[in-house]
Design goal:
With 277 residues, this protein is an alpha/beta fold. The protein contains eleven helices and eight strands. Strands 1, 2, 3, 4, 5, 6, 7 and 8 form an eight-stranded mixed beta sheet that branches. Helix 1 packs parallel to helix 2.
């Protein structure tokens, strides 16, 4: 049984529609796939319908932008009530944070000699619930290919934290997001906590405190974690009785080719532990 618990559609910063993502997951030999778009659930219905048609298990999920001690942390939430009022209020604040920084980012790019318009941006985010940094990157790659050959070239020094066009935005406090997911009947798993792009602020003691807030698991097997990191995180998870998940973080053509569907998977026993909680 092959299970991938972290993927994105073009309702956030992926390139496949929810239906195509599910079809591609089936073609890739997956038995279960989770749709976890950033900060919203608008792709759920389309994905559920397609999953029933093609015969694959679907987990309805989300990846929430959160912060801990000033550092960005991503939180995966699964199978919660998408109509929960308190959770939706917080998600709306997060999405508004994305929108509110757009004019400043456009101005910063223009100041650096790489102007793009709102029309350029929305052409790339057309089916997404909100425009994000990957859509900025796609617009710059299209308009200035000699300077920016791909998304990574834009993020490096430009859109990453501290970059020339970076603008901070609101993110939900990590513990608050966990508590909201749990109160809405869902499961909470920290995504790629020690990736090469993130500081290791989530120590063993911090994870222990997050367990008290309701944390269910850690995404250990991820392309941004080398083998030594995976061993250490797995040890922490085992010590704290947290579920260990693995996933692709698939974005279609929006990420490097090695982030393909099923490149990392969740062991069936861990899947059963997670959804048996």
């Amino acid at each position: 049984m092959r299970i991938d618990l972290h993927t994105h559609s073009n309702r956030s910063d992926g390139t496949d529609s929810p239906a195509d993502l599910v079809r591609n997951a089936r073609a890739a030999g997956l038995d279960v796939v989770a749709l976890t778009d950033h900060d919203h659930t608008v792709g759920w219905d389309e994905a559920v319908e397609t999953a029933a048609d093609v015969g694959i298990g679907l987990v309805r999920g989300i990846e929430i932008s959160t912060t801990f001690q000033g550092h960005s942390v991503h939180l995966l939430g699964y199978e919660f009530d998408q109509h929960d009022g308190a959770l939706n209020d917080e998600l709306e604040r997060v999405r508004q944070g994305r929108d509110q920084r757009i004019p400043t980012m456009l101005a910063k790019l223009a100041e650096q000699g790489y102007p793009i318009t709102m029309e350029d941006l929305t052409r790339h985010s057309r089916d997404a619930a909100a425009s994000g940094r990957p859509h900025f990157a796609d617009a710059l790659v299209e308009k200035y290919p000699a300077r920016f050959p791909d998304r990574d070239a834009v993020f490096d020094g430009w859109l990453n934290d501290g970059g020339l066009a970076y603008v901070k935005r609101y993110s939900a406090p990590l513990q608050t997001a966990i508590e909201l997911i749990k109160a809405a009947g869902g499961l909470a798993v920290v995504a790629h906590p020690w990736s090469s792009k993130r500081s290791r602020v989530l120590t063993r003691d911090v994870f222990a405190a997050l367990v008290d807030a309701g944390l269910d698991g850690i995404e250990v097997d991820h392309n941004d974690h080398d083998e030594a990191t995976r061993v250490e995180l797995r040890s922490i998870a085992n010590e704290l009785d947290l579920v260990v998940t693995g996933s692709s973080d698939y974005h279609g053509t929006g990420k490097k080719a090695d982030f393909f569907l099923g490149c990392n998977t969740t062991h069936p026993d861990e899947y059963e532990r997670l959804f048996g909680r």
